[in-house]
Amino acid sequence: MSSTSTKKSPLQYIGLALFAVAMLIFTAMLGLDDYTFTQDAITAPFETSDESKQGIAAMHQGALIVAGEQTGLFENTYSTTFAAEKALKQTFYTAKSLVDQQIKADGLPEGKQQWEVELPEWQFKNQRMGWIQGGAGGPVRNNPWLFFWLTFGLGALGGLLYIIPKFRAKPGIKNDHIFHSPLTKGLDLGWRSLFLTMAILGILGYGFYYMDDKFFWPAVTALIAIVIIALVMFAQNSWGRDARDASPEGLSGYLGIFAGVYFIGFYLLLYWASHHIVAWVAMVSPISEGIYQFFSGKEEGGQASQWFLYGFMYCTIMVVMGVRMISKYRHNKYQIFRTISVLFFQLAFAFMIPEILVALNKPWYDFKNIWPLDYDFFFSWSIDGFLNTPGSLGLFMLGWGIMLIIIGVPLMVHFLGKRWYCSWVCGCGGLAETMGDPWRQLSDKSLRAWKFERWIIHGVLAAAIIMTGMTLYSYSTGTQELFGIQTSGIQKWYGFLIGAGFAGVVGTGFYPLMGNRVWCRFGCPLAAYLGLVQRFQSRFRITVNGGQCISCGNCSTYCEMGIDVRSYAQKGQDVVRASCVGCGVCAAVCPRGVLRLENGAEDISQRTVSERVIHISEENGIQLME
Ligand code: SF4
Ligand code: SF4
C-alpha cells in the first residue's frame, strides 16, 4: 500500500466547480416560478361521474369558488410555494366552513351522512400538490429541459470530470487521508448523538401533525425507543463511558455535516412536503411523459410525480457514483461485478419495468422488492390489487412475492449469503455502495454500536411481523381492531416511522454522519431476516489467513457494517456475522490478501467458533494449530 498525493488535476477542479454550480441552480430553482390559480383548476379535482355524488361535488365546488373570491385566491400571483400553500389553505378552510354552515341551515341531503357531505381535511393534503403543480408558471415551468441540463446534466458532467481522471491513477486502495481530514473525518459520539436526537425528535414532532394530532402512536414509539436505549445502556453499563470513537474529539467532518443536512432536508420535502418541490418535478416531467407516451401509444399523459423524480435522481446518482466505485475498486473483479449488478437491477427492475407497467395500464410493481422491506405487500389494498388485476400478472406477482419470502430468500442465503440481495440486487444497498461509498469508513466499530444494532434491527423485524400479522388478521376476518388496537393505526405508524422516517430521512440522510449503511445495519427488517439465515444456516463466510495479517486495520476501517474484521484476522477466525452484507471491500482493501469471501460446504459450525493459530518454531517451522 503506497501513500499518494491528494492533489487534484485541473479537470477535477472544473468538475467540482460544475457540480457546485449545478447544486446551486438545483436549490435556487425552487424559488423561480410563480403560482396563479383559476376557478376551473381549483374545482376540477372534485368533478365526479358518479351521479349520486354530483350534488355534493357541486356544493363543494361552489363553496371553493366563493371562498376563493373572498380570499382573493383567483386574483393574486404568489411568488413562492409557501405563499401559495397559505392562500390555498385559507381558501379551503373558508370553503369547509361555508359547507358546514350550509349543512346546518339546510340539513343533510336525504340518505347521506355528515362525513359524506362535509369537506374533509384530508382533501386539502391530497389536492395541495396538484393545485400548486397546475398553478405554476415561470422559467422552470416554461423551460424544463433547460433546467434539466443545468442541474442533472451539469451535475453528472461535473461528477464524471472529477471521477474519470482517477482511472489514470494506479489501481488499488491508497492512503488518501480521508480518515484524517477535518473535512471528511467522522463526528465524535457526542455530535453524532446530537444530530440523531434532533432528527428523531423532529420526525416524532412532525408525527403529531402527520397523524392528525393523534399522539398515541408517536408517544408509544418514543417510549419503546427510550426503553430499548435504556436497556442497551444498562446491559452495556456504558453511562459515562466513551465508545471507541471513529474520530478524534471536536466538531469535524464539515462536508459530512453539510451533505447530511442537505440530504435530510431533501427527504423531509420528498415525503411530507412535496408541494414545495414542484419545480424539481416539473423539470423531469418531460422524461416521464416521454416514457409513458412511448409505451402506452397515447399522445398525452404521464406527468411526473415526486416519486418519478426520486426514482430518476436515484438512478442518475447511482450511475455516476457507480463509475466512481468502479474506478476506485477496479483492482478487484468482484467489486466491478457487484456494482454493475446493482446498477442493472436498479435501472431495469426498480425504475424502467415499473414505469412500463404503468404505461401499459398495469399496477406499479418492483419485482425485486421483498416483504418485510416491502412492508405494504400484504395490505388489503395491495392484495385486492393483485387479485383484481386483469389477466394473470396480479396473481403471478402475489405468488412471486410469497415464494421469494418463503423459499427464495432462505435458499439463496444458504448458498450465497445475504450478499446476493444486499450487495447485488437491493436498491437501498445499491445507493449505499455507490453514493454512500465516500462515507463507509464512518460506521461505528464499537461493541456498543453492535449491541444497539442487534436490538434495533430485530425490534424493527418484530414490529413488521406484528403489523403484518394484524393486517392479515383484519383482511381475513373483516375486523379492523385487535386487542383494542386499530390495524390502520399501526400500519400508518409503521409506514411513517419506519418506511419514511427511518429508511429515508435517517437511513440516507445520515450517510455522511454515521456511515453509508445506517438503514441496512440498524433498520432494515429484511436484512434482519437474511442475517438470521446467514448466521445460522449459510455456507457463506469470510475466511482468513491470519498468519499474513499485519494488523494495518484497513479491513475494519472500510467495513461499512461496523465489523471489526481485523480482530477476526488477528485471531485467525473466520468472519460469520449476521450483519455482513458480503460487499467484499474488506478483502479488496487488504494489502496482504488475508481475507476471502467463500461459500464453502463443510464444517461451518466448527469454523465459526474455532480459532486457528499460527505457531512458529525452529524445529517445526510454521504450523497451523487448532
Ligand atoms: S465484513 Fe467485509 S464483506 Fe462483510 S460487510 Fe464488512 S467489509 Fe463488507
Ligand atoms: S486482514 Fe488485511 S486489512 Fe485487515 S488488518 Fe490484517 S492485513 Fe490489514
TrEMBL record:
Keywords: 4Fe-4S, Electron transport, Iron, Iron-sulfur, Membrane, Metal-binding, Transmembrane, Transmembrane helix, Transport. The keyword 4Fe-4S applies. GO terms for cellular component: plasma membrane. GO terms for molecular function: 4 iron, 4 sulfur cluster binding; metal ion binding. Residues 540-568, 571-600 form the 4Fe-4S ferredoxin-type domain. It comes from the Bacteria. PROSITE patterns: 4FE4S_FER_1, 4FE4S_FER_2. The chain crosses the membrane at residues 12-32, 146-164, 189-209, 215-234, 254-273, 307-327, 339-360, 393-413, 455-473, 493-513. This is 4Fe-4S binding domain-containing protein. It comes from Neolewinella agarilytica. The lineage of its organism: Bacteria, Pseudomonadati, Bacteroidota, Saprospiria, Saprospirales.
